[in-house]
Model the fold of this input.
Amino acid sequence: MAIQLTQKIVQQFQLHGEKDYPHESCGFILGQWTNNGTEALEYVPAENTKDENRERRFLIAPNAYQQVEDEADKKGLAVISIVHSHPDHPDEPSEFDRVHAWPGFSYIIISVAEGVATQFRSWRLEADRSSFIEEKIIIKGNN
Amino acid sequence: MSSQIKIPSPLRQFTENQSSVSVDGTTVSEVLENIFNQYPEIRNQLLDGNGSIRNFVNIYVNGVDVREKDNLETPVEPGADIRIIPAIAGGSGDLPELEQTELRRYARHFSLPEFGMEGQQKLKAAKVLVVGTGGLGSPVLLYLTAAGIGTLGLVDFDVVDESNLQRQILFGVDVLGESKTQSARKRLSELNPNLNIDVHETRLTSENALEIIQNYDLVIDGTDNFQTRYLVNDACVIMGKPNVYGSIFRFEGQASVFNYDGGPCYRCLYPEPPPPGLVPSCAEGGVLGVLPGIIGCIQANEAIKIITGIGTTLKGRFLLYDALDMDFQEVSLRKNPECPACGDQPTVTELIDYDQFCGINLPEPDHEWGEITVTELNQRIQSGESPFILDVREEHEVVVAKIEGTSHIPMNQVMARLDEIDPDADIIVQCKTGGRSAKICTLLTEHNFQNVKNLKGGITAWSRIIDPSVPLY
Done:
């Protein structure tokens, strides 16, 4: 399994993470399934609607998710990934991330250190919900 | 006729890539069971070990969240549109783990479904600043310590006085004369040794307030004067911290939550302080000892709700309590767009001189009577003079402490008993600290008494400087 990103999408979610720093940024990636994983086609930023603790928590309102999924269905795509930033924290999923996750999404976590997006990794939850495993990321050229 | 249930993208791997499934059932529970029969792997993604909907999973029937209806027992009409929507959540920085002793200590919290383990972890992660460790601060600190707030900051500069013990239940006779913050830290550590207690043994001022407050998530205002109340409010607005407010006077108390989650601040309610002297302090006006216990507990309760995110807070609500009538009233508060602190165009963008703002320490207005210090008065008495000293305090105060050789007429009887005072005498008026006696000096000069002087600092100064055998109260 691997997720294939474009440079443009990477740039978009990194900039979003930097712009929302010190709060957590969050967004969706629409794309499609391929033979060996998923292919990302579009980054859709979302609003972090958490009232407090936005430095270490994010929440996307259910109706925002619903809209994005309907849009993806209309285009014949799927929501393949949830992206969020960890301001001044590593790009590893927390326990809180695990209990709020579903298998079937790629969870991309961006580490934003002092306002600069440094690195990011992608994680998938095992079907039995027990843990996350890191997923390979392939970045395609600039399209 | 069956209902249509839309499957979210990530779960389609469990439904043979079906984006929508047609299922029978008259309740959400039946519908789900039918899906689980067909696609068993979905169960664990939607329900937790107890068979309840996982807290990040929302199920909508015809656009309405089933949590607002009867949850899993919500009826499903034939042809209904059912959607499963995740509330996408996550974040860094895990909540702190609880140790075995903590698991035992907070067992009664875990049994509350709204609270659970996570609520307790949030309390452990929380940092709360309590400004003032007196009447309100005592119950606030005792309950927050017992409840397991991870870090508590204490601000006070005072020492424990005997007159505090009637309401400040953090302190006993063994710590009379000792630092309030240090005594409080000792007491609170005995109650719960696992917490961080930061002592700020200082007066909160415009110079240090932002620096102190920035390290905390939430501030509890247990102050007893307008200067500090405005200072706490403005500092909380500038730093974006919730301010849990309480105040007490005689038999009446107030409580609210300011500057929280888009709600109003104290200045939305009172843009400016009352003129100095209009509202007496508790030292002058008295306070029922139980009252701060009640209001302080309300503040502690609000703090815990804000930290754990449960229940409905006093945001935008002003609670008024009358201990004599046992009456709670509530006034709703709106955020004022013109508020100088938190409005659309705030003018308070940094901390100011709050003594000046509240009219404290302004030059005294001119008056025709003179003043005398306790040292001067003592010298005159020692040199054999016997001035007429008029004590204008109330009867119950005179019983506690008096200066030898004084004449007593309570303040509100002076007008009716002017004929008891010799108009040619050298009159010195005395009260507890010099405030009430100043008013009587004015009254006497208006009635043509010529030689009137106010005793600066009253009997309190007399006890401190001249005669320690006169009790302080």
Observations:
- Chain B touches chain A through 29 residues (CB under 8 Å).
- Chain B has 17 helices and 19 strands.
- The mean pLDDT of chain B is 91.
- The CA atoms of residues 159 and 180 of chain B lie 5 Å apart.
